[in-house]
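so ive been stuck on this for like two days lol. basically i have the seq below and the ligand is zinc ion, smiles is in there too. i just want the complex predicted, nothing fancy, no docking runs or whatever. if the output looks off dont worry ill sanity check it later, just need somthing to start from for the group meeting slides
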Amino acid sequence: MQMGELAADEHVKYILSVEKRKDSLESVVSEHLRMNGVYWGLTTLDILGKLDAVDSNEVIQWIMKCQHESGGFAGNIGHDPHILYTLSAVQTLALFDKLDVLDADAVSNCIFLFVICFYAPNSHASLETLSLSFFKSDIAGLQNEDGSFSGDMWGEVDTRFSYIGISCLALLHRLHKINVEKAVDYIVSCKNVDGGFGCTPGGESHAGQIFCCVGALAITGSLHHVDKDLLGWWLCERQVKSGGLNGRPEKLPDVCYSWWVLSSLIMIDRVHWINKEKLIKFILSCQDTENGGISDRPDDAVDVFHTYFGVAGLSLLEYGGLKAIDPAYALPVDVVNRVFLGKK
Ligand SMILES: COc1ccc(S(=O)(=O)N2Cc3cc(C#N)ccc3N(Cc3cncn3C)C[C@H]2Cc2ccccc2)cc1
Ligand SMILES: [Zn+2]
C-alpha cells in the first residue's frame, strides 16, 4: 500500500473490528460513548461504500434499546440520555433510512428537556421530573429566553447544543417547534471580532464551536450573519506547514480539524483559500496502512473518531472513490437528500 493513497479496505476492517471488540480498553473507554462510536463508524463505512457490511437490523435494535422513556437516547443501554447521543442515534437511523421507527414528537420533545436545564441548572431535577413538567408546558414556550439551548451533560448553555438541537430537529422535520429566530440571535451573539464563534457570548473563537455555529446558521438559512471574508481568513490561517489544520492559533494540527475547519470553509464558500493537496497528504500520513484506522497526528494511536473525521475530511476534499458528505449535517449527501427530498 503506497503512503500516498487511502487504505480503504484496511479502514473498513478496522471499523468492523472495533464494532465487534467488547473487552479492549478502547471499547471500555468508549462504552458510554458507544452511540457516538456507532455513528462515527457506520458513517465512515457508508462514505467508503461499505455500509452493507453490517447487519442493519442488529444495529437498529440496539439503538432502540438505548431510547429513554423521555424520548432521548443514551450512549449505551441503561445509561442516561443526553442530547449528544440523541443526535447520533437520529443520524445513524437516517443512514439506514429508518427514521420512521421513531416517534419524532417524543424525540424532539426530549430535546427541549435540555433547554429547561438552563432555567434551573442546579435543580437536580431528574429527566423524568423534567419530562413530566415538560408535557404540561407548551413546547415553544420552553426555549430559553435568549434562544439558546443547554445540555444536561455540561449543565450550561453552549453553542454545541444549538447545533445538536437544530440539526436533530431539522432531520426530524420538527424545526417549526422552536423559535428559530431566537436560536439564530443567540448564535450571532457568540460571534467574535475575529469573525469566529465561541461557546457563549465573549467566548474565545475555536474551530469546533465555529463548525457548530456555522452549521446551525447554514441549516436555518442564516449564513448572511457571517462575515465570510473575516471568518474565512481566521479559518485558512489554521493550515500549518505540514498541510494539517489546527483548532486555534499556535496549536498543533489534528486530523479532526480537517472536519471542523474544512466543513466551515465549504459552508462559507472559502475552501479555495487553503491548499487542499497538502491537507490530503497530511490526512493520508496519519493512517495506519497495516492495521487500518487514522490517528490525530502521524504515528499516534488510531481511533474511530479520527478515522471518521479523516475519511469525512477526504470526502469534503473530493478524494476519489468516496461518497460526498454534507458539510452541515455530517451525513452522506444521498442520505440528506432522502431525508429532505424523499429521494430514494
Ligand atoms: C482518548 O481521549 C478522549 C478524550 C475525549 C473524548 S470525548 O470527550 O468523548 N470526545 C470524543 C473523542 C473520541 C475519541 C475516540 N475514539 C477520541 C478523542 C475524542 N475527543 C478528544 C480529542 C479529539 N481530538 C483531540 N482531542 C483531545 C473529542 C471529545 C469531544 C467530542 C465529543 C463528541 C463529538 C466531538 C467532540 C474521548 C476520548
Ligand atoms: Zn482530534
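Residues 8-341 form a domain with the Glycosyltransferase fold (CATH 1.50.10.20). The beta strands are 294-295, 302-303, 325-326, 331-332.
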